[in-house]
Amino acid sequence: MAQQEKVSADNLIGQVFWLPDDGGSRTHLNFIIAGISDEGTVLLVNMTSFRGFSDEDITCILHKGDHESIRHDSWIRYQSAREEQADFLIKIISNGELRSASQLSPVILKKIQEGALVTKRLSRKFQQKFFGSL
């Protein structure tokens, strides 16, 4: 696990960690890209390997070197974005329940956030709630 400062509401955006997929058989790298909302929630997106298939969203492709945990070209799955309580994530990241990595750099965080504004795969509800009116 990467050495990082204590997780708090002040540095939650940009945190990186692994979460199991819906079936629980694999983990995917997740990024907190926006928040904290009026309800105390943040927005998470994950990434998956880019294979060049027609159903992959090419809005935001990340490459090896964009983050220490990215090993090959991967795409942000905006359609799988989810909202989680910030306090809950702070607790489980801080106590080690989630395998975490170093924070996103400001440049890569901004790239993912800008993709969230233009992709057709992130729900309009999330776009408006976390990024303002469009």
Describe this structure in words.
The relative contact order is 0.24. Strands 4-5-3-2-1-6 form a 6-stranded antiparallel sheet. It has one domain (17-131). Strand 2 and strand 3 (41-49) form a beta hairpin. The chain is built from 3 helices and 6 strands; from the N terminus they run E-E-E-E-E-H-E-H-H. The mean pLDDT is 90. The longest helix has 13 residues, at 106-118. The chain starts with 15 loop residues before the first strand and ends with a helix. With 134 residues, it is of the alpha+beta class.
Q: What is the helix content?
A: 10-25%
- Report the radius of gyration as a whole number of Å: 14 Å
How many individual helices? 3
Task: Sketch the major β-sheet.
Answer: 6 strands, antiparallel
Query: What is the number of independent domains?
Result: 1
Main sheet: strand order: 4-5-3-2-1-6
Count of DSSP strands: 6
Global outline = globular
Q: Structural class of the helix and strand makeup?
A: alpha+beta
Please sum up the structure shown.
The N and C termini lie far apart (38 Å). The protein contains 3 helices and 6 strands. It has helices spanning 86-94, 106-118, 124-131, and strands at 16-20, 27-35, 41-49, 61-62, 74-85, 100-101.
Q: Secondary-structure map with pairings?
A:
Elements: E1 16-20, E2 27-35, E3 41-49, E4 61-62, E5 74-85, H1 86-94, E6 100-101, H2 106-118, H3 124-131
Antiparallel strand pairs: 1-2, 1-6, 2-3, 3-5, 4-5
